[in-house]
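[step 3/7] fold_predict: job queued, chain A
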Amino acid sequence: MSVTSLKVGDHVIDLSVPVVMGIVNATPDSFSDGGRLAAGASAEFQISIDKALTLAERMLQEGASLIDVGGESTRPGAASLSEQEELDRVIPVIEAIRARLDTAISVDTSTPAVMAEAIAAGAGLVNDVRALRRPGALAAVAGRDVAICLMHMRGEPGTMQQDVQYEDVVAEVQAFLAERVDACVSHGIARSRLVLDPGFGFGKSVEQNYRLLRELPRMQALGLPVLVGMSRKSMLGAVTGRPVDERVHAGVAASVLALQGGASILRTHDVAPLIDAIRIQRAFAGARQ
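[step 4/7] structure written:
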């Protein structure tokens, strides 16, 4: 990796040491923690700003360097979301975090209008599972001074697990990400603003996910920071047999392997255990022979 820092809004994230991105899901139906930030038990989901702030503050106290706010569930089979619903979920949370907490903020969205509004509200990184492929997405970020995470996903969340046939999953993911980097550069987006995510769990079988993890060092060939998000995912449950809320230990183990493979950013629901994992991995890597 040739990029050792990332500008995210008013913050510069030092990537010479791996960092943790904490997840704040402003959704009623995310696979792991959907609805935990609901304001009440009404039929129509509304976000509790106080709950979101409490969660973000705890993650920062535990050592997170970025907070990632998302309003669209991207679990397998997830339903689509209207632009206005997504705006109503994420913008108040980003505004509140910006006003109350001193941290870099990421918005997890593929919707151009949400990107623009979130950036205006204080987000300094756009984390897009569709890698800026929606019409207008490239234009929405090209002229703005924000970092961008490009992720690989085949199809849409509702259908992504229906087609997991690859000749070489690692080569195809790498080629896709290289093409999206080229698309960004052709729109005037500097490579120094880009982060890559191989998309664990997004249109891949369990075996393919682990092959990607094993061969993660190949992603370094693109010369950009790699973000990894495996927190509580089914690839962990498939191996351990544990339900979603009992996958923290498996997530730590997988994250250590990702660190060994060169990951720069770990996206997680469970910040403190991954901060410990980073410290142990660094101590191990720096130990004298």
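[step 5/7] annotate
The first strand starts at residue 5 and ends at 8.
The chain has a mean pLDDT of 91.
exit 0
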